[in-house]
Specification:
The protein has 205 residues and is an all-alpha fold. The protein is 66% helix and 0% strand. The chain folds into two domains: 2-86, no CATH class; 93-192, no CATH class.
């Protein structure tokens, strides 16, 4: 373990610092400790990934550590605030994409066909109990925080009725590039709304 401490110390502290900024109520030292616990509880992954080329190795470790400490911080924040982590609603990309047209058109509470319950913890259908309007408000707030370039892409995407080929023509790009710009902007909204839920991460058998 000593070799891993020396080799990945900078990565651990970088990840911990970023998560401490996101969750300032969680002591940074506690986040660092949780990051090191990932190495302890994932010995097989640690050994295999450490044997890869540095670029590939760091990428895998960074992703795993971000996931592990984020899961920890979400749990600790819930304890401090007095709620259960399972009560949290995680906005998926497809949910945001479905809600955006009504937000951009100012046509709130318009019903849609998306399944809001699928793979989303603690989520009831937003069209029930007034949740849809609350979600549209969330998406609207996050949209207002985007860079102007990303806002403009989503406005154009909406005006072309979500047609990537037509959007590409307007921005002088191919269809694939246009679609990627839309997805990056939507992912930026998802991130501002709390990001995706942490994924399960078990060690190799």
């Amino acid at each position: 373990m000593v070799d891993y401490v020396n080799k990945y110390n900078d990565l651990v502290y970088t990840v911990a610092s970023l998560k401490h900024k996101e969750f300032p109520m969680i002591p940074k030292d506690d986040i660092v400790q949780e990051a090191w616990m990932w190495f302890v509880t994932h010995p097989k992954k640690t050994e295999e990934w450490d044997g890869l080329e540095d670029k590939d190795s760091i990428k895998l470790f960074a992703k795993a550590l971000h996931n592990a400490v984020r899961k920890y911080c979400i749990s600790e924040k819930a304890k401090i605030a007095g709620y259960e982590p399972d009560d949290l609603f995680y906005y998926r990309r497809d949910i945001v994409e479905e809600l955006l047209p009504s937000v951009l058109n100012g046509d709130l509470q318009t019903s849609n066909n998306i399944d809001y319950n699928d793979k989303v913890k603690g989520a009831s259908s937003p069209s029930e109990g007034g949740n849809l309007l609350a979600m549209q408000s969330d998406v609207s707030r996050a949209f207002s925080m985007l860079k102007e370039e990303q806002q403009n892409i989503l406005y154009l995407w909406n005006e072309t009725k979500r047609n990537s080929k037509e959007l590409g023509r307007l921005i002088n790009a191919n269809e694939k590039t246009a679609r990627m710009k839309v997805l990056r902007a939507i992912d930026a909204i998802v991130k501002k709304l709390g990001g995706r839920p942490p994924y399960p991460d078990k060690d190799y058998k």
